[in-house]
């Protein structure tokens, strides 16, 4: 009887004398982060414990993400095991896996941290000619670029560029690492140039845009090269160097023509026309603007067409060709009526009204100068009726 009671009591009550069961029970009472840290220590992964503990000091929400904690524990332990064996390639891959694992916006700092660790381990690797180190610099540069820390991004992208120079390395999609480095550097140089331009530092801005253009040329892709040439042309245009501006805008025009890119071709004609007009070559400017208008019309690009007509009207107005100017301003106004922009419409109204008045004024002055009976009667008739066909009536 007593043996039966004893047997039943062991099934009903926990065995408080079994230390293994005590440990198992304590894991359910302690926080997950503590269990994971303890697990790393018990398994002898002291460096992994130190790394994880340091991260947890900054990561208050860690307890709410058990999967992330368990993933950290697993890959940190693997990385430490590989490091002990001198397998720095494996160390790099484990840190890289962790960096790519953290994809959510609130985990950006963790992504950055593990890309930094990947770079450190890649620098210890001597058997891949620096390929992994180059890739790690690319990843860190991209992190800084997203954060808007362009100078730091530039530093890592330039390191990536120099390490890929003369190499035939490719990523998993088959894209050349060096081509990628040129593209990334071009983007950084362009944004740095825009910042400098906002600070009115045109000289340094042009230097940066020149670097971006050189990177675009080196990449071998004509699309980025054309856009870089366009930006550089506009920069030279802004400081009054229209000769150099036309040189780069000409490159943009040629590339757009070769690519049959009508939108960019029209933009090129418009920009070249501006430089020609500023250089006093108004006849050539009008020819380019007419091409701009023709391309914009054929591609149904109303915004560009309105811009072309407005610019044509302005040039003809400056040449005292008020009748022709009025025609173009009227076309621009008609387009603006169908655009969802009050400011554009108001400006178009002022231009067409002013040009119409100047056009009518010419005819009015002509009849005043003639000063004959018939001319005076025409003027009086116009003043009484104020019809829009005053010019024709004259």
- What's the β-strand tally? 0
Strand percent estimate:
under 5%
Low-pLDDT stretches: 4-14
Shape: elongated
Computed CA radius of gyration, to the nearest angstrom: 36 Å
SS element count, helices = 20
* End-to-end separation: 133 Å
How do the SSEs run, as a string of H and E?
Answer: HHHHHHHHHHHHHHHHHHHH
The main pleated sheet reads as: none
Write down the overall mean pLDDT: 86
Question: Helix share of residues?
Answer: over 70%
Which structural class matches the secondary elements? mainly alpha
Explain this structure.
By secondary structure, the protein is an all-alpha fold. It has a domain at 27-55 and 65-146. It is 80% helix and 0% strand. The chain contains 20 helices and no strands. It has helices spanning 2-12, 19-29, 32-42, 46-58, 66-84, 88-101, 108-123, 131-147, 150-164, 177-198, 202-219, 222-238, 242-258, 262-278, 282-298, 302-318, 322-337, 342-370, 373-385, 390-393. Helix 3 (32-42) runs antiparallel to helix 4, helix 11 runs antiparallel to helix 12 (222-238) and helix 17 (322-337) packs antiparallel against helix 18. The relative contact order is 0.03.
């Amino acid at each position: 009887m007593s043996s039966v009671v004893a047997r039943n009591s062991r099934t009903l009550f926990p065995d408080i004398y079994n230390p293994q069961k005590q440990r198992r029970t304590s894991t359910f009472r302690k926080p997950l982060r503590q269990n994971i840290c303890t697990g790393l220590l018990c398994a002898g992964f002291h460096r992994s414990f130190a790394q994880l503990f340091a991260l947890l000091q900054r990561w208050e929400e860690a307890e709410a993400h058990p999967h992330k904690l368990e993933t950290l524990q697993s890959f940190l332990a693997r990385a430490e095991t590989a490091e002990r064996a001198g397998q720095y390639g494996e160390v790099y891959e484990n840190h890289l896996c962790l960096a790519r694992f953290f994809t959510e916006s609130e985990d950006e700092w963790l992504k950055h941290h593990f890309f930094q660790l990947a770079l450190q381990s890649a620098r210890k690797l001597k058997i891949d000619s620096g390929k992994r180190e180059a890739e790690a610099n690319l990843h860190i540069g991209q992190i800084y670029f997203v954060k808007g820390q362009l100078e730091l991004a530039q530093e890592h992208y330039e390191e990536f560029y120099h390490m890929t120079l003369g190499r035939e390395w490719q990523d998993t999609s088959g894209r050349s690492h060096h081509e990628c480095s040129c593209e990334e550097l071009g983007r950084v140089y362009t944004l740095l140039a825009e910042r400098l331009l906002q600070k009115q530092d045109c000289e340094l801005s042009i230097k940066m845009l020149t670097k971006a253009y050189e990177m675009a040329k080196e990449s071998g892709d004509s699309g980025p090269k054309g856009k870089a040439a366009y930006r550089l042309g506009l920069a030279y245009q802004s400081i009054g160097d229209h000769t150099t501006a036309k040189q780069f805008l000409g490159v943009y025009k040629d590339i757009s023509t070769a690519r049959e890119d009508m939108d960019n071709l029209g933009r090129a004609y418009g920009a070249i026309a501006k430089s020609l007009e500023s250089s006093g070559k108004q006849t050539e400017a009008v020819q380019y603007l007419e091409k701009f208008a023709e391309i914009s019309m054929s591609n149904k690009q109303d915004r560009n067409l309105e811009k072309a007509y407005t610019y044509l009207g302005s040039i003809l107005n400056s040449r005292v060709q008020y009748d022709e100017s009025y025609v173009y301003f009227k076309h621009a106004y008609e387009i603006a009526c169908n655009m969802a922009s009050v400011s554009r419409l108001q400006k178009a109204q002022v231009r067409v009204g002013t040009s119409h008045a100047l056009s009518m004024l010419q005819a009015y002055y002509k009849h005043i100068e003639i000063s004959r009976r018939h001319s005076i009667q025409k003027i009086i008739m116009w003043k009484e009726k104020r019809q829009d066909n005053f010019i024709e009536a004259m």
